[in-house]
Amino acid sequence: MNRRVNIWTTFRKASRFQVIPVMLVPVFLGALGAFMWKGVFHPVLFVITLIGAGAAHLFSNMINDLWDYRNGADVTAKETPEVISTNSGFLSGGLMPERTFAAITWSLLGLAVLCGVVLSLFSGWPVFVFGGLGGLIAYFYVAPPIRFGYRGQGLSEVAILLSFGVLPVMGAYYVQTGDISYQSLLLSMPIGLLTTLVLFNHHFLHWQADKQAGKNTLVVVWGERRALHFSKALLFLAYIFLILCAVTGILPLYSLLALFTIIPLYRVYGRLKEHNPSAAYLPLMGASLQASIRCGLVMIAALLVQGFIQM
After folding, report:
1. Which pathway does the database say it acts in (predicted)?
2. Of 170, 190, 239, 260, whose CB has the highest number of CB atoms within 10 Å?
């Protein structure tokens, strides 16, 4: 029993399992969008979609760690004073052999692909388009030759918006309905932008080490002051799309209760200066993650309630 607990604990830490809600929430939104708009919901397909998307997300976390370790970014972050590293630490800290880490990583991809195959048999070949694009983005985010996360041209932010917003929401909706709609695209924008904000803000924690390792994130390229302005712009853009979804009937009007989730995060911005030590960004990172999950949960509840009302 203890061995099983240790294996699970190791896997949970290595894969950074605690952040999996940022992928599962968009899947819920896409499926519940189908439930509200078309009265369609297939529980088994939904569960398979959750498993596949979750496995793909954990693969993304681990392949990022694997290539950041190989590229030297994680080691540099570990050795740079006052920089806060956001990787699992299993490779940079020598806690797990690279071969073992890689084997777990590719096994997660295998599980995601298996789920994609099953879903395609029931919902059609476009499932592979959604899943394939997500897999390619996850791999080439830090892997050569593309390395979105190292280019500093906004490519990594677009990649995150697609991977944690557009693709999982539209993909989950397609699995349920066999359709592609503008409604699911617009529904993906609030949660996609908020998750992009989470990933963008985490660069503040170790941008000095990223600069040394040649990882040119927008925080490195722009500097703290300009990057903070962009961070705030992403925040407000996400909630503008939330309002747009409610006004156009994509979400019920009472989903606007999710606007209250902006308050704790906005207060954190107010405590930041133009230049801050890395530790000062930890509350920003935590508040960003909470805003993304809480806003997503309110949207989920609104879709679920409205779907039952319309039955």
Report:
1. Quinol/quinone metabolism; menaquinone biosynthesis
2. 190
Query: In whole angstroms, what is the distance from residue 55 CA to residue 108 CA?
Result: 5
Q: What pLDDT was estimated at residue 97?
A: 83
- Residue-by-residue DSSP string for 235-286: HHHHHHHHHHHHHTTSS-GGGGGGGGGHHHHHHHHHT--SS--GGGGHHHHH
- Alpha-carbon dihedral 148, 15, 55, 235, rounded to 10 degrees: -50
With a CB cutoff of 8 Å and minimum separation 6, the contacts of 282 are 84, 205
Distance CA 256, CA 301 (A): 12
Confidence tier at 153 by pLDDT (50, 70, 90)? confident
CA 199/CA 201 separation, integer angstroms: 6
Neighbour-count burial of 184, counting CB atoms closer than 10 A to its CB (0-12 exposed, 13-18 middle, 19+ buried): buried
Residue 149 is given by DSSP the state G
What's the DSSP call for residue 85?
A: P
User: How far is Cα 117 from Cα 267, in angstroms, rounded to an integer?
Assistant: 45
Percent of the chain with pLDDT over 90: 55
CA–CA distances in Å: residue 168 to residues 46, 174, 184, 269: 12, 10, 10, 29
Residue 123 · residue 130 · CB < 8 Å: no
Neighbours of 135 (CB within 10 A): 21
- Based on the number of CB atoms within 10 Å of its own CB, is 208 exposed (0-12), middle (13-18) or buried (19 or more)? middle
Residues 210-269: tens digit of each pLDDT:
777 777 788 888 888 999 999 999 999 999 999 999 999 999 999 999 999 999 999 999
Domains of the chain: 7-310 (1.10.600)
